[in-house]
């Protein structure tokens, strides 16, 4: 490969006028593992080091995206970003140009950016030790998939979606809208510590939205088994989507057959389905335990955390009942946040955030982890980053972002239906959405809700919601669903300035609460 | 070599010049192979920013970006593609791919204006969207400002977190149809923003101030920083009071945010654009099925002191002169005057003047003469609201919205601010609030920076946003529950 953009290399191997699609072009673009690409990133490191950076990393990404149906909307980008640490201050510079000259320019800009802040106020920045062996600092990793959406024929994928759509739309009173998104990220990471890693990450999601009419009413239902996941096209095609959609229609019709009732405001037993619990876990635990957020680094953007003093609260703060245990990882198969290395080269660990109701740990990167040193010493834990560093592309700098989360399932036999059957008088929420404040503590869940009497859903409730305080919500937890009721839900959220989006999976179960404060969300004061 | 245009030295401020953009667009237009409608958008962006937290810069960045966005469309079949590589081989390959996808019959839902339609629509020429100064501030100057801006907080023992950013964009848009008719436009814009949040280290109080303008000269970062400290100081030890209905004095930031929930937000607009004629959930959209807006057209829907408009020649508003950008009064002295609709919308007889009415990201609400101090002095019992957070509409018919108050909520007793109070969740309709207006203060620009950068190349009309809103005193505002967040 020549220096210059990877794409420039194509010109030398294939006349441009013969190119008919990116699919063909891709095979000609230098692979992210090409040593010539790494050379560009290494130039940035050398320049940064010789300009006084105590630490530097460089990332390059070549990303592909396909939205809606396979062929209707596509995107491709090449980005490079250089991050440096000078005198305790971080600097960053990025651009779309892959060349040695640009790498030099970016390194110089990044160093200048960092240094500009060293004007009298000192800032101490320590990075957590690198725990990986020399072998683990280097290598190549690919999300395990079967069908690469970027190599399959577009027609094959489009035929699949058109097939499902036309089959469902033939049914009376059904309108299905099917879409899919596919992502491929080729990433390179090098650092002055000696990291030299390349990864190819795939993400796929299917969006199957149906309008179902029944008895003069209409509802929209969404399939929740094809949310964002680290997978290829097999993730969607490998499931029996039509059967699942038919089941959804049946459920929707059953629900619409129930009478509508007003909400009885007050404290009730509550059951929440796995899908809604995933959103609750993300908002009340996932985001609240991002350490940078708890420390105030996000205060001017999406907010802070109820964990106001992580050092003091780790190991003692009660978030919920002993039924609640939540772990975090970036390694589970198909997890939307799954990688081999995070965006500063750390191999993520699996760890426990909430253990039997007590806050046990926080989500960290190499900088924030050092804040927890005394807590880790007390607990005899090694000082390390958990690998939560993430940037959506190489042209944005890294931040701590939530890992995949898992609610540890409860005892066998607890299913969504069995939890409902155990309720004498209460409310069930299903596919609900979460509103939460800027400290992740006071929230409201709302959406589809049902009144339960003697273990059965007897009416659909209009405008029902439940307001909660995070510790009281999880404190009221009486049962969690079993392994068979687990659902992995991929989701996205915004963070940072400027705003950027990241993804995670929450493996969730339905839950039952002893009581919750049920309200009519459309009722004013 | 890829992106050589981008690296050449004749660009201004690190952005592609109109000539450079033209060269790329010409190359693309000449290489077309289909009798189809095309849109070529070539844009370049530059950002220089400092993010800080705990009174120290936490990241200092500059970022450059380029985008080439192509839509190719034949009847209802179409496809779009986006790349950030400008070399000839990439451009050629990208164009061939979008053409082949279009021929494949891909279903592309976004509307595409034809040049012939665009040639009929008026365009504004005298809009102000650019300031050199926004891009000439060095990173050293910016760092010095951050140091000065954080020191009032540090002196008080508070923690300041904030963000300052200078942003520039140049963009060319060419529409070509199957008869080789062209419509070519070039836009450039700048946007500066500064905002900061000052918190008590124990998290017991929080204050915020922010402003986004196209011109860096119009932002006084140190003044904003001091304001955030003052707000934090005056919010110490908030007390819990009962939720309920209160007379409120909504500061301009709060008014702008609340009103935004009944207009279509730029982000929602983009994702719902294809549905705009079918009636998105937004009040100003033409909506046939529910007859929501149409039935109210020409009627007085809010207090007569409320006028919501956009005018491209408004020097404080900053609207890119995208074809079809007319001065529009959506709500004129309380009367619903216009609804958004694109060309398709003029089949509706009420609106049949052959043009379209599109919302821009920017809007102005007219102001009045009452100062906030006068409003407070005339209030027996009420609340001052600095801003809201996480507002969203929960009922499209009543426009009911929910969200929380943030960074400043104070109780007024007997004409004086008596104490800081704990935040509330609100459940209120902006229509209801705008009907219960007691007094109107001066209108001023608020913090409403442009949406996510990804929108720039898709919808230039939303690339730059400015909202101008007044302070409003409103009776019977609904606070539904106390929240814990500070």
Keywords:
heterodimer, A: seven-stranded mixed sheet, six-stranded mixed sheet, 14 helices, 24% helix, B: 486 residues, alpha+beta, 17 strands
Short structural description:
The complex is a heterodimer of chains A (525) and B (486). Chain A is of the alpha+beta class. Helices cover 24% and strands 34% of the residues of chain A.
Mean pLDDT of chain B: 85
> Main beta sheet of chain B: strand number and arrangement?
6 strands, antiparallel
Give the quaternary arrangement of the chains: heterodimer
What's the helix-strand series of chain B? HHEEEHHHHEEEHEHHEEEEHEEEEHEE
**Tally of DSSP helical segments of chain B:** 11
Biggest sheet layout of chain A: 7 strands, mixed
Helix and strand content put the structural class of chain A at alpha+beta
Strand and helix layout:
The complex is a heterodimer of chains A (525) and B (486).
Chain A: H1 8-13, H2 22-28, H3 35-50, E1 55-67, E2 73-86, E3 89-95, H4 100-115, E4 138-142, H5 154-169, E5 174-191, E6 196-214, E7 217-222, H6 234-237, H7 241-257, E8 260-261, E9 266-272, H8 274-286, H9 291-294, H10 310-313, E10 326-329, E11 351-355, E12 358-359, H11 366-369, H12 373-379, E13 389-390, E14 399-400, E15 404-407, H13 416-421, E16 425-436, E17 442-453, E18 456-461, E19 464-469, H14 470-475, E20 477-480, E21 487-495, E22 500-508, E23 511-520
Parallel strand pairs in A: 4-6, 8-18, 9-16, 15-22
Antiparallel strand pairs in A: 1-2, 1-5, 2-3, 5-6, 6-7, 9-23, 10-11, 10-15, 11-12, 13-14, 16-17, 17-18, 17-19, 19-23, 20-23, 21-22
Chain B: H1 4-7, H2 18-30, E1 37-53, E2 56-74, E3 77-83, H3 88-103, H4 115-120, H5 132-136, H6 139-155, E4 159-176, E5 182-199, E6 206-213, H7 221-233, E7 244-250, H8 252-260, H9 266-272, E8 308-310, E9 328-332, E10 335-336, E11 363-365, H10 372-377, E12 381-395, E13 400-413, E14 416-420, E15 424-428, H11 430-435, E16 437-445, E17 467-482
Parallel strand pairs in B: 7-12, 11-17
Antiparallel strand pairs in B: 1-2, 1-4, 2-3, 4-5, 5-6, 7-17, 8-9, 8-11, 9-10, 12-13, 13-14, 13-15, 15-17, 16-17
Helix pairs in contact in B: 6-7
